[in-house]
Design goal:
heterodimer, A: 521 residues, alpha+beta, Cytochrome Bc1 Complex, Chain A, domain 1, 2 domains, 6-stranded mixed beta sheet, 5-stranded mixed beta sheet, 18 helices, 16% strand, B: 498 residues, 14 strands
Chain lengths: 521, 498
């Protein structure tokens, strides 16, 4: 009760002065094996948002196995020694034989890739190019898959959750971490403990090769078939010169074709020991009961030998401006990106406030580029603070009659102004007010809160969810000027200009924003 | 919302004979014993209030956070407009928010809302108009004041209109860029024919939008007597009712006209195989959808159809289409079916996926096989159990927040849903038997009426997969053969002769 009175008292001061926002109260505890739990008991509907992360993602990969963190995430739904099979012994024997056949097929395919490299054949996947031995191996492989199918209990993992009312089950892989989440009815919380600890205790990567094909389809869907997907990928790998952030989370196509089950298992053994894992649960539960369940189920996992070290290869300092000029079936647009700072760095709050001052209907970019100069129809900025490094980006979509380079010029002028003149008191206070209201809004969804706790923890420390707000409130106009001058420099800049490439369709007249005849640069 | 007592202790003795593994844990999830959960859905009558204007509001208090949210829906939409005015309804909706008010400039309105950290929205869709405001409790006076000023006296600032027009025209030019966008547009045309849901804005229709025409649309439809409100958050009900009544009093200047009935489509889709060639990006993936006209929400078989579709392709990883197309064959990342019943007229059944050009025919054949199998065999006890249990178990999630409770009930009344719908929901699910599912599949799936649409690299799709020569698109096409749909001019939406 006192808590509530205090809160409404604080809220009434909101627009008057800076103050602490809503704090998130979390019960933290750590099992003997090192696995951490973050708990927020909350009344409401009879449901619990539950998730866990491994604090590792594609940044922890190496060339040759790019995409393995994400592929591994897919495999975590394929079952265990108990789930997903009628006969685990026979199943494991088949999996081993499949791996051996696959290795032989790969060596046959390597011969075809060599022929393709020399220009002797065009398509290494055309069956006509295969040797008799190659085709026989494929036939044996397919026959074995059929035999395995007899043993598999299809998608039993999903089936058990679904039949028990688990909803929103999914997982995601980012550069820095991998996250697994679901909503479960509060009377079935023990099911979550059973299922999640089981797949960490004895995962079996059955149906590995079919799932690898699924991931290749996912890559085609998300990257290859979107208008700017491949350009964006090229931009990303150009921006990061030495950092492993340069390769795509979903992996390069060559690696996706070749990653083996053993390599995925190796990733698991290194990065999924309980001392690398953190779980978060938000919802209707009793804390003591939940702790007992955690010990009972996750307590069986053995601590990993030694936590993996930090990523060794870091970004080198950029020496000269980088530019990318591309054509895509999209609106003409420009983006400008700078190397800045990792998550939770002391300069991050000022950069975030800076981007907020540029953003939105009342932000400087919209007012200047869209409303006044009418050089763009859309403009914005954002901060991407990752674990080891970070970047700041401003972008705009050219208005009819304008070119991407006009948008670039206008964006640069606004960024330069941030370093030259202090921001106004009212526009700074506006951003801080929005931050404080956002502190309450972010508590509305139990699921969203669970995801935020895990994300903060993956990048450093969940406590930053509370510190963050205070840091934003403390930003002064001179802080913004300082970071603008420090990071928005010529040699730290990467510019991407996308021009419109017309696709198939009836011929039409000249469109605004089309690339003029001849290359502009 | 009040906290309810959900758990009843598990019956004594029920814990006996649980299989345990070596580590003392139950061997399989089926050995777990869960406490019983009882849950009663909220009663709409408890939250329903009639306002002085004659309109209705659902108010659900929730004092956990100092936030208040007010939304409304009313009957207005693009269905009321002729084709030549395509875009006017949605422009009116967004310009009510962007164009300031009679006494507050667009810029001041935006600045004030941003400084208060108040979120205000407005939109008009095909069959309804809506608006919302979300603010901190302490800013409720200023925020509701702005919201109702905007609804009653929108400014429709001319400069904001021109900016929106420029952006819209640029967007029109780009609408043949994405395979998914082309697929939904053409599939709707094939299934709905000449209907308001298939009307596309054009350069000419966007250019015909004026401030006066938006003012006219607003005056004809934004009548406080027609608004269905949903209010949730940190307020006292009596106080909020007083605020709403005051805001809606005084008779807004309006030339209200009858909203008019929503016309049902009369088109009878022509089954067959249709292809749109879109190869410009040299991408080895195409998008395919198969479907036909379905049923209305009020159809007595609606729950049977829901369970049937859940087994077929609506149940995510546990449904048949997903199992075969993705999990068994690795042919697609996403593969599904949806059987969305229509609110005002029969909806559409559709199944779909994206796959390599060479394997599209194979995946499409699998989907057709699975549709036919639903009609020929009863679903297994486990499939039926999973589909039904899921629907029953997630039921409390429909009412998880005060906003969901208020929003659901307001929308139910707006669309005329039967009042015992939620009370009976779980029982109606539980009543569905395997025979019902078979009947529903036989009555409401029509493999002979399937409209199959494939968008992507037509030539490569027709060539098929050399490793699976048994599958081809031609065999799906039947006697009529492959019909090709050209891409329209994106600005005029005129289709060249094929």
């Amino acid at each position: 009760m006192l808590h509530r009175i205090l809160r409404s008292l604080l809220a009434s001061l909101l627009l008057v002065a800076t103050m602490a926002g809503q704090r998130v109260e979390v019960e933290e505890f750590i099992l003997e094996n090192g696995m951490k739990f973050l708990l927020i008991p909350r009344e409401g509907d009879p449901n619990v948002a539950a998730g866990w992360i491994s604090k590792f993602g594609s940044v922890n990969e190496r060339p040759g196995v790019t995409g393995v963190a994400h592929l591994f995430e897919h495999m975590m739904f394929k079952g265990t020694h108990v789930i997903g099979t009628k006969d685990v012994e026979r199943d494991l024997a088949i999996i081993e034989e499949l791996d051996s056949l696959r290795a032989q097929i790969q060596s046959q395919r390597a011969d075809l890739l060599e022929k393709q490299r020399l220009g002797l054949i065009e398509d290494p996947d055309d069956p006509a190019n295969r040797s008799a031995e190659h085709s026989a191996l494929i036939a044996r492989f397919d026959a074995l898959l059929e035999a395995q199918r007899e043993l598999v209990v299809k998608d039993e993992f999903s089936q058990i959750y679904t039949t028990n009312g688990g909803s929103g089950m999914n997982a995601g892989t980012t550069n820095d971490f991998t996250i697994y989440f679901i909503n479960v009815p509060s009377n079935k919380l023990e099911l979550w403990f059973w299922m999640e600890s089981d797949r960490l205790a004895s995962p079996v990567f059955r149906e590995f090769y079919a799932e690898r094909d699924v991931v290749r389809e996912e890559r085609r869907l998300r990257t290859d078939s979107t208008p700017t997907g491949k350009l964006d990928e090229q931009l990303e790998s150009m921006f990061w010169q030495s950092s492993p952030y340069g390769w795509p989370v979903i992996g390069w196509p060559s690696d996706l074709n070749a990653i083996t089950r053993a390599e995925a298992m190796e990733f698991f053994d290194t990065y999924y020991a309980p001392n690398n894992l953190v779980a978060a649960l938000v919802g209707d539960f009793d804390v003591e009961e939940l702790k007992a369940l955690a010990r009972k189920y996750f307590g069986r996992l053995a601590r990993g030998a030694r936590p993996p070290g930090a990523v060794r290869t870091r970004e080198v300092e950029q020496q000269a401006e980088q530019r990318l000029t591309g054509r895509a079936e999209t609106r003409p647009q420009a983006s400008i990106r700078f190397h800045t700072v990792p998550d939770a760095h002391v300069d991050e709050p000022a950069l975030i406030v800076l981007s907020a001052i540029l953003n939105g209907r009342t932000g400087r970019l919209y007012k200047s580029l869209v409303l006044e100069q009418q050089v763009a129809v859309q403009a914005g900025a954002g901060v991407d603070g990752r674990k080891y490094d970070g970047s700041f980006q401003a972008f705009g979509v050219a208005a009819p009659g304008s070119q991407p380079e006009d948008v670039e010029k206008a964006l640069l002028a606004e960024l330069e102004l941030m370093g030259r003149e202090p921001v106004g008191e009212r526009e700074l206070q506006k951003v801080k007010n929005q931050q404080l209201a956002g502190d309450f809004r972010k508590l509305q969804s139990k699921f969203g809160l669970m995801l935020q706790l895990l994300t903060y923890e993956a990048l450093g420390d969940w406590r930053n969810i509370n510190v963050f707000s205070e840091r934003i409130q403390a930003v002064k106009p001179e802080d913004i000027q300082r970071v603008a001058k420090r990071y928005f420099t010529d040699t730290n800049r990467t510019v991407a200009l996308y021009y419109t490439k017309e696709g198939a369709g009836p011929p039409r007249g000249r469109r605004p924003g089309r690339l003029p005849e001849g290359d502009p640069r | 919302m009040r906290r309810r007592e959900w758990f009843k202790a598990a019956a004594g003795g029920a814990l006996a004979a649980v299989a345990q593994g070596q580590d003392g844990l139950p061997e399989h999830p089926r050995d777990l014993v869960f406490p019983k959960l009882t849950y009663d859905p909220p009663d709409p009558a408890e939250y329903r209030h009639e306002l002085d204007s004659g309109s209705v509001a659902y108010l659900v208090e929730d004092h956990q956070l100092p936030l208040v949210s007010v939304s409304f829906t009313l009957r207005a939409g693009s269905y009321q407009l002729p084709k030549e005015s395509a875009g006017l309804a949605s422009f009116t909706g967004s310009q009510i928010r962007s164009g300031g008010t009679a006494t507050r400039s667009a810029r001041d309105f935006d600045e004030d809302a941003a400084f208060l950290a108040t979120q205000i929205g407005s939109s008009v869709g095909a069959t309804s108009a809506s608006g919302s405001v979300n603010c901190l409790t302490q800013n409720i006076d200023a925020s509701l004041g702005m919201f109702f000023d905007m609804l009653e006296n929108p400014g429709f600032d001319s400069e904001r209109l021109e900016i929106a027009r420029a952006r819209s025209l640029q967007g029109l030019a780009r609408r043949n860029d994405r395979l998914g966008g082309i697929l939904s547009r053409e599939f709707r045309r094939l299934t709905r024919g000449d209907h308001f849901t298939t009307v596309q804005s054009t350069q000419a229709s966007i250019q015909s939008i004026t401030r006066e025409r938006m003012q006219g649309f607003h005056a004809r439809h934004y009548d406080p007597r027609r608004m269905f409100f949903s209010v949730a958050g940190d307020f006292e009900t009596r106080d909020m009712l007083r605020r709403l009544n005051e805001a809606l009093a005084g008779g807004w200047p309006s030339e209200t006209v009858e909203a008019g009935d929503i016309p049902a489509p009369s088109h009878r889709p022509e089954p067959g195989l249709y292809m749109v060639d879109k190869t410009s990006r040299d991408v080895n993936q195409s998008h395919v959808t198969l479907g036909h006209i379905g049923i209305e929400r009020s159809h007595p078989d609606a729950f049977k159809v829901r369970i049937m579709n859940s087994v077929l392709g609506g149940g995510g990883f546990t449904s048949r289409i997903m199992l075969r197309v993705r999990s068994d064959e690795g042919l697609a990342y996403s593969a599904y079916s949806q059987y969305q019943p229509g609110t005002y007229y029969p909806g559409v059944f559709r199944a779909g996926f994206q796959s390599r050009n060479a394997t599209c025919a194979q995946a499409a054949a699998i989907v057709v096989e699975e549709i036919e199998r639903m009609q020929n065999e009863k679903v297994t006890a486990q499939e039926l159990g999973t589909a039904k249990n899921y629907q029953v178990e997630i039921f409390p999630r429909f009412f998880a927040t005060a906003g969901q409770v208020a929003g659901t009930f307001a929308n139910d009344e707006f669309t005329g849903r039967e009042t015992d719908y939620w009370k009976m929901y779980r029982q109606r699910i539980l009543d569905v038997s395997a025979e019902d599912v078979l009947d529903a599949a036989q009555d409401h799936l029509h493999p002979d009426r399937l409209v199959v649409l494939a968008v992507g690299d037509t030539e490569a799709m027709l060539r098929g997969n050399p490793d699976q020569p048994g599958y081809s698109f031609e065999s799906l096409a039947g006697d009529a053969g492959v019909r090709s749909i050209p891409l329209p001019d994106p600005l005029t939406m005129e289709y060249p002769e094929a």
